[in-house]
Amino acid sequence: MSLQHQTEEEVKLAALAISFNIRLRSADMPVPMQERALRHARALLDAAAHRRPNPTLLARSLKKEFDSVYGPAWHCVAGKSFGSFVTHSPGGFVYFSVDSFSFLLFKTEVHVLPH
């Protein structure tokens, strides 16, 4: 998408990503939700700067943040190397890298099964 067609929100998100050393790889998510994900992931890695970050704890924290703010059911994969192929709810997907860590965050619908 050219800069001429980007909204002010998208331009601000791009500036935030640059300032946080984040590469946004793919997204199907409203810009404010993307911003929350980027800020939360950056804060998690900054808090772990004095030790080796634990990918499982990073994924759990980002998942719980989104479950808490946007409702269930969010899923998160975090790490330096992984493959994935997922189905997500519309408007509920973002894939980005912070420094050398990648984050895949996506939402699925929850269906209660009858007993």
Automatic annotation (TrEMBL):
A GO CC term assigned to this protein in UniProt: nucleus
GO biological process per UniProt? microtubule-based process; mRNA transport; protein transport
| InterPro entries attached to this UniProt entry | DLC_sf, Dynein_light_chain_typ-1/2
What domain of life? Eukaryota
User: Per UniProt, which keywords does this protein have?
Assistant: Cytoplasm, Cytoskeleton, Dynein, Microtubule, Motor protein, mRNA transport, Nucleus, Protein transport, Transport
Pfam families linked: Dynein_light (PF01221)
Q: Give the Gene Ontology MF terms in alphabetical order.
A: dynein intermediate chain binding
The protein's location, in the record's own words, is: Cytoplasm, Cytoskeleton; Nucleus
| Major location (coarse) | cytoplasm
Similarity comment text for this entry:
Belongs to the dynein light chain family.
This chain belongs to the protein called Dynein light chain
What organism does the UniProt record list as the source? Perilla frutescens var. hirtella
